[in-house]
Structures are given as structure tokens and as C-alpha cells.
Amino acid sequence: MASPPKSRFASLKNSPTDVKAKLQAALYYARKERKKKLLPFSPVSLFAASQQGAWLEAFDISTLFQLSDGTTAVTAAADPIGYIGDKSGRSNHAIQTTTARRLTYQTGPFRATVDKVDDRLTVTVPTGGFTGTMVLGTDEGTASYGVTIPSGAYDIGGRGGQYFPGNAIVGQLIRNGALSVGEAAKTEAYFVANGATASYGAVTSFTSFWRDRAELTSFPMIDTSTGTNFSLAWHNCTGLTSFPLIDTSSGTNFILAWHSCTGLTSFPLIDTSSATNFFQAWRNCVGLMSFSLIDTSAVTNFSQAWYDCNSLTSFPLIDTSVGTNFNRTWFDCTSLTSFPANAFDNINGGDFTEAFTNTALTQTSIDNILVSLVASGIAAGTRVFGQSGGSAPSSTGEAAITTLRSRGWTVTVTGGY
Amino acid sequence: MILTIACPDALRDDANDLAMVLGYGPDDAATYVALNWQDADGNLYACASLPVSDTFTTTAQATLVRPAWDVEPYTISMAAANRAQVALVFSLEPVLAMPDQLTACAGDDGLAVLAAMGLTQLVVAV
Fold this sequence. Notes:
By secondary structure, chain A is of the alpha+beta class. Chain A has 4 helices and 16 strands. Chain A is elongated.
């Protein structure tokens, strides 16, 4: 902080004159502080201690160039963007050397359009990588994420050119060293003030939004309340170890939504009351140790939903009452020993092809499953059941198998009964 | 105008030579790389989408000239670029992508154009 004018501090004593001088000095500081508070936030403060990172603004035309060497200024809408200058002071500029992959400048509002076919720029992350926070402002929403980005090429815009949480980038800030909650909020507000959309609350299709973003280590509590399509939304986000309780109450399509999120160890009790399709939704979530009793009352397609979730040891009594397709649903859940009774009492279809192949079910569990299939009364349509690994059924299960076969089922179980 | 181009696997090398001729430099050899799209018959494609000038289609169909930056030993195979040019099909409306053609269609939304060309994004092996 700069010193106040010397004349006001020249000889501060306890004389009336000195008291006046002190009051003037106090007033001076008060005005200065007030002025400071009124100054708009600038992300420059986030790099004041020489932190590594990148701060890119597609709305600041002075930082945009058509060619990757930082020449030929962007001047008009539809100009290609081959270079976005890094404003962090670390010279981590984003560039694209291939013509077709360049983003496109857009005015009204100012931003860079990402075509999701091949568009992306590249930042070369320096040795040591970035572990901290990324704030991403787009035309569809703005959010802050925990990230760990290794050194080397990092996509700005579409991941692999194809996947991006929006259709245009307004601003992106990555800092090595986590931002405080307040700093992240201020940065988000800064991007919003410059053209980014604040909330994802109006998005209906989140298809492939965060797909293949292995760098994400935490995911924010964003508004997804209007989302109906979450297919592939977090596919292959291998760095996520937990997932927030976002609002998915309108979601119907969760095809491959968390496929290969290998770092997840648990899953929250999100609202899936509208969900109809869980095809491969959690396939290859090899770290999942437990699973919540989510609402599956409207789900018809459970095919491969928990395929390869080989850390699950038990499974909750989910509602399968409208389920028709259980093809390979728990395939290769090699640690799955415990499965509840009555799980399939009210199902609508009998495709259990390899549903429990390569599992570790106890005798009680496989008996539970077979008895429940009998209770379903399914005697038409596809009627196939498969289990391998774990225990063979007891006489109770064998009796159930006999009944199922009398109803046209093809049943394969451990032990070969 | 925005052009979205579907390049079948077999034409990738030739098409990248053509991209260098029509583009800005040797880095345009990376225009068609990943085979992320497929047609109904399972044929794979690498795709690109970019804004082009109104004269681009004329230039792309005219006699190809080696760019000034490409000096001996040449980077570009002009023979390959010419083969790609022969396979090039322009359309102002989306048409189905073909495994023996370099199909370029106009349209503001590249993803929508690719869908109309009968292409879907590869997901993962089932």
C-alpha cells in the first residue's frame, strides 16, 4: 500500500493540529480502501505470487490472432483463431497450427465458437503440470473444477476437438494451486460479466459435455435440473473420485454417462426418477465399492449398466419393475457376492443373458435371484439367464431353475445344473 | 461459409496432402487424423469442419499449385493431392458420405451436417 502524502504525517503529536492530521490520514485511508473495494475484480491478482497457469479470454480481441505464431490479428466475426495470448504472464499461450482445427471468432457477444468436430487450441503445460483449479466460462454455463493436468499438450476448446461443455468458449483460467472458493466465484462472475452464461440450468442435453476429461479431480455442484440427456456426459473422467449430488431429476437418458469413471469409489443418491435408459451407465467403474439405492422405477434398459464394476461386493434392492433388458448387467463384477432377494419379482422382460457371468455370488444370492425370476412369472419373450463364477445354487435354486425351464427359460448357472 | 468434410480412412494421406496445398502450411498435414466417425456400413472417417472463403470451392477444384513454402525436398505429394481432388465432392446440402469420396458439405453446424451425412461418432467397443 502506498504511503499517504508526507505532509499529513510530518509531525503527528497530540496537539489539536495533530488530531486533525490524524483524522485526515484516517479519512485518506478510508477513501483509498473504499476505492479499492469498488475496483472490479481482475484475475491478474490470482497470479500475483508468480503462480503457474493460463488465463485465456476469447472476449479480449487484443489477445486473439489468426495464425499460430501470433500474427494476423483477429478483427472480425468468423475470423479463425489460431492463437489466444495467455494473460497470466506465464506465456502459456494457446495455439493451433492446423487450419481446420482453429476456433472461430464470434461477436455479439464476443467468444470463440467450438465446432465439436475438430476445433481446439493447445497449451503446452510446463514441467510439473498444473494441480489446482480450472474456471471455464462458456456460452452454456460457467463452473470451477479441481484439476490435475500433466505437462505436455492440453486441449483448449473441444477435448480431442469433439467434446466441450458448451458451444463457445468465453474464458478459461487454470491456476497451479487451488483457488479459494471466493477466488473461484469471483473469476466465474468475471467471465459471466464478459459474456459467459452463469448457469447450466437451461441445458437439456449434456451429451459428451465433460467426456474424456481425465484432468478433472472434482466436479462442481452445478445446476443440471433441466437436463434430460446425460449420455456420455462424464465418460472416462478417470480423475473423479467422488461425484456431487447434482439435480438429475429430469434425466431420462444416462447411456454411458459415467462409463469408465474408474476413480469413483461411491456414488451419491442422485434423483434418477425419470431415467429410462442406463445402458452402460457405470460400466467399467472399477473403483466403485458401493452403490446407492437410486430410483430406477422407470428404467427399462439396464443392459451392461454395472459391467466390469469389479469392486462391488453387494448390491442394493433397486426397483426393476419396468425393466426388460438385463443383458450382461452385472457381467464381470468379480467381487459381487451378495445380491438381495426379490430383486426381479416384478420385471417386464427376461433377457438376463450373461447377466451374472463371472461374478462371485454366494449360494444364498444365486438362490435369491432364481427364486425372484420365478416370482416374476415371465413366460414369454426372451427368457435367458446366465451365471458363472461364485457358488452353484442350492436345491432351492435348482427347483427354481426347473420351474423356469418349464416356462421356456434357458438357464446357465455355476455348477452346470 | 462453413464446410464440413468427411474423409474415409483410405483417402486420409491423400487428403492431408490436398489440405497442405489449400491451407497455410505443413501443419495442415494433420487435418485428417483420428477416425472418430463411422457410416451405417461401419466405414470409418476422419472429419474436419472450418469456415472458408466464398472462392474456396473454385480454388479447390482448379489446377493445384504447389504452395510457395514447399521447397525441395518437397513435403507435399502433388500426385496425392491431385488424387484427393479427384475424389472431392462439394455439396451445398448434406449428402451421404461415401468410403471412396472426400465429401465436403456446407452448413453452419458441423455436427448437424455430419449427422445428415449419415455419420455417427464412435463411442466405445461394446
